[in-house]
Structure formats: C-alpha cells, structure tokens
Amino acid sequence: MDTLIKNSLDKSISYQAYRDLIKQLAENSSTTGNEKTEALVNYTKLNDRRMKRWDKTIKVNDEAFYKIKTFKDPITWLTITESWCGDAAHILPVLNKVAELNSNIDFKIVLRDENPELMDAFLTDGNKAIPKVIILDSKTGDVLNTYGPRPSEASNYVSRFKAKHGKLTPEFKEDLQHWYNTDKGQNIINDLTDILCELEPNVCL
Predict the structure, then answer these.
(1) Confidence at residue 149, expressed as pLDDT on a 0 to 100 scale
(2) Neighbours of 191 (CB within 10 A)
(3) Structural domains of the chain, count
C-alpha cells in the first residue's frame, strides 16, 4: 500500500492543473478516462461550467472557517476522479476552497482510469465510485480516513431511493443535481470539518 500511495502521489496534480485540464478538454470536445463517448464529453463540458461557478460562489460559514484554520497536523487529500463525474464537479471545488484555508491541507488529484490499482484499493461497496478522497498523514503516508463518493446527506438520499426503486433513474439524478445546487456545498464543508475534528479533537473544543 505504501508504494501504491507514493506512486499515486508522484503522478498527482494540483486542483488548478486539474481545472486547466478540464477547461482544455471542454474546449477540444474531449474527456478524461478510457471511454471517449459523446455523452462523457458533454458531461465534461457541463462540469467545466459547474466548477467555474462553484469556484466563484462557495462560501465557508464562520464556525467551519474557525475549525479549518485551527487544524495543525499536515494531511494530504489524495482524490480520485474523472472530468465527466457529476458528483465530482460539485465536490472538488469545495475541497479546494477548504484546503485553501489551511496550508496543512495538501489537495492532490489523480484520474481513476490511469490509477486502477489505487481505485481497486478504495472501492465503495465493491464499486469504483468517484470522487474518492483518501486522507493521508503527509509525514508518514498512512491512510487516516476516506471521504466520498458523495456527501453524507446525498448518500442517504441515494440509499433511500435505491432501496425503494432498485436503481437510480435519470429523473432522480436530475433531482440530485438540484440538491447540490440548493445545498451550495455546505453539507460537504460540514462533513470535512467533522473529519478534521475526528483527526484532531481539540479543533472542535
């Protein structure tokens, strides 16, 4: 695992580099990943617009701001994603906004299809679900926790729907996008601050 994490970190890019990549892909009608279908290209274009909007509009509430700024242990958020992933387009800008508030949080990104061994090591219920954030001790490389592929409230929303209907419908996926737009990243921010508090309890005193 240590070698796998180290190799993945060596291949990782910054959030700004990822945003530049998505913008370029959208302009060239392309996408990340092994499949280059028209549908995935269109999702990449849509996600470029989504992320551009979130980069400008996400606000961190005062309570979360204080907790984030108080965190002292150097950690890395190694995040597995692809440009076409709808959940990632809502989540990654929030991860970046939080990481920007504290220099002890190093936010790195790798692509799922280029890192199959890493993805296989961090499946969600046996699935290659993204985005998946692997939270590491920056000094030792130890895995401290994981986050994703969806914020807690969205995960519960999805689980209830799957239990009732068996699978996610196109209509539900549209409803989920509305949920993200209404929530404005606040559930993600609260989830992340809860994780920081678990890692360093004095943050929440």
Answers:
(1) 97
(2) 20
(3) 1
